[in-house]
Amino acid sequence: MRSLDNKPDKAVLRATLETFLTLKGVWYRLIEFSEPVKTAEQAGRKVDAEKIAKSIVMVDSRGASLLAIVPAKSRVSHMKVKKLLDVRDVRLASPEEVLEHSGYPVGGVPPFNKITRVLMDLQVLNNETAIVGGGDIDKLLEVKTKDIVAVLSPTIADVSRN
């Protein structure tokens, strides 16, 4: 559902995400902020930075979307992703593509979204829980890393660069 300014309705996104997690039996803790948290660095001032994992929406040379889940302190390695997927190129999705492919706006993309091709960096598994996008720029979500793996069945590999 969209508002009049064509942005996703925050309440609908939150309800959709929470319903999905509940139906899948995923333990979660919603972390809400009074102001936007637009970067991993900002989030790291409010929660344990070592547990933050970014959900990065990308598009390959065939135009197909993928989601890369990497530690907040790292960046996605385009070279590693290209080699792993055997594609000519990959790029970060534009804000419009992020919304189109994932269903969530930039800065709030949770790993649980419409994208089914998911890569998860090995380092994310170093923590029992991960703090991920909560569906909006003023929300984060803490979930068990084992639940991310169980629900998404990601390809787990070294896809980051520090």
Please tell me about this protein's structure.
- With 162 residues, the chain is an alpha+beta fold.
- It has one domain (10-161): Alpha-Beta Complex (YbaK protein), CATH 3.90.960.10.
- Helix content is 27%, strand content 28%.
- The protein contains 5 helices and 10 strands; from the N terminus they run H-E-H-E-E-E-H-E-H-E-E-E-H-E-E.
- The chain has helices spanning 10-23, 40-44, 78-85, 95-102, 145-152, and strands spanning 28-32, 53-60, 65-71, 75-76, 90-92, 118-121, 129-133, 139-144, 155-157, 160-161.
- The strands form 3 sheets. The protein has a 5-stranded mixed beta sheet. The chain has a 3-stranded antiparallel beta sheet with strand order 1-8-7.
- The longest helix is centred in the first third of the chain and has 14 residues, at 10-23.
Count of the separate structural domains:
1
The fraction of residues in strands falls at 25-35%
Name the structural class. alpha+beta
Query: Residue share in helices?
Result: 25-40%
End-to-end distance:
37 Å
Q: What is the H/E string? A: HEHEEEHEHEEEHEE
Task: Please state the average pLDDT score.
Answer: 92
Q: Which stretches are poorly predicted, pLDDT < 50 over at least 5 residues?
A: none
Number of strands: 10
The biggest beta sheet reads: 5 strands, mixed
SS summary, helix count? 5
Principal-axis shape: globular
How does CATH name the architecture? Answer: Alpha-Beta Complex
Q: What's the CATH class label?
A: Alpha Beta
Say what the CATH topology is.
YbaK protein
Query: Strand order, biggest sheet?
Result: 5-2-3-6-9
